Amino acid sequence: MQPLVSVIMPAYNGEKYIGEAIESILNQTHENLELIIVEDHSTDRTPEVIRRYQDPRLRVYFNGRNEGISYSTNRGIDESRGKYIALLDDDDIATRRRLEWQTAFLEEHGEIDVLGARSALIDRDGKFLRYDAEPIYNPKYIKANLLFYNKKFANCTVMIRKAFMEKNHLRYQDHCLGMQDFKFYIDSSKVGTISSIDRLVHLKRIHEEEATVLSKKFHGKERADLFAQFQRESIYKSGFCIGEEHLQAINDVVTEIPKDRYSIEDVKRLYLAFREIVLQARQMEIDYLSELEYACKRILGERVLPRADLFGRDITCFGQVDL
Predict the structure, then answer these.
(1) What was the pLDDT predicted at 308?
(2) Which of 101, 148, 280, 323 is the most exposed, fewest CB within 10 Å of its CB?
(3) What local confidence, expressed as pLDDT, does residue 276 receive?
(4) pLDDT, tens digit, for every residue of 65-94?
């Protein structure tokens, strides 16, 4: 029987946790699925753990050498047969009704191309830590935020229409230093509609060997530069044409990880950059203007101003003058 959902799981040195990840998919309430694992030439016992599972819905592909997570994800997608693509890391867990909830929503909402959901954080032993930030449900607000950063959208909560990926030639790109998901959602937001559901579908494991943690630790400067490059590409691809001074202000202030402190000059520069973007958005009559205005104000008001050195400064202009 043709599976409705293909779950793609890149695997690399995941012997500690991959068993739980596999079982969380094979035990889904929605059974019309296939689980495709792409084993990326691990140096530990990951292949041995995978071979313990004998289920006709499980298919495993072995890379001849270590190729990286983007290559492995794309290979899994290429081998998939499902109408929908779901993603799960080899150290995370899908809640039992994840595929049931997301397929039901996408079957009823043909206008949605990429669907996220809620996530919670667990420690290395699987103990609950906290709920992740509530996702954004408004597609236009997601699109507005993806001009600048990936706000409240966890990659392994995602289910994607495969036909949407094929039609728009969407791929996970290599050499992204762990930010291939950010780049994928930027590209998707230009040609499709992204939303989320208010369901807990994903348990993200936090530990020292996590790929994102290692990337930030060993490639901090390169990752920051690449994040800035993605921002610029996102802004340009959406039709905005702003000067280098404004682009640099956005790069300097709207970083992947918020800075501890911002100067009054940082606030002014970002305010002027956002004002120019909103002005151009009005001239272009974009369909997400109100969401873009709100996103800019939220970034200024919640992300930057609380960390700004504003003692004795008059900041009324930032709160009272429309962007």
Answers:
(1) 85
(2) 280
(3) 97
(4) 999 999 999 999 999 999 999 999 999 999
Give dist(CA 238, CA 201) in Å, integer: 31
Residue 71 contacts residue 43 (beta carbons within 8 Å): no
Buried-state track 125-139, b at ≥16 Cβ within 10 A, e below 16: eeeeeeebeebbeeb
Residues 6-57 pLDDT 10s: 999 999 999 999 999 999 999 999 999 999 999 999 999 999 999 999 999 9
Distances (CA, A) of 72 to 39, 167, 172, 286: 8, 21, 9, 36
Amino acid type, 265: E
8 A C-beta contact, residue 192 and residue 168? yes
Which tokens go with 257? 């990880």
Q: What is the DSSP letter of 5?
A: E
Q: Which long-range contacts (CB under 8 A, 24 or more apart) does 168-177 make?
A: 168/192, 171/70, 171/74, 172/69, 172/70, 172/73, 172/74, 173/70, 174/68, 174/70, 174/71, 176/70, 176/226, 177/215, 177/219, 177/222, 177/223, 177/226
- Other C-beta atoms closer than 10 Å to the C-beta of 182 total 21
| Distance, CA of 230 to CA of 238 (rounded, Å) | 12
CB-based contact 204:120 (threshold 8 Å): yes
Q: What's the whole-model pTM score?
A: 0.91
Q: Crossing angle for the helix pair 264-284 and 289-298, nearest 10 degrees?
A: 180
Q: Tally helices (H) and strands (E) across the chain.
A: 13, 9
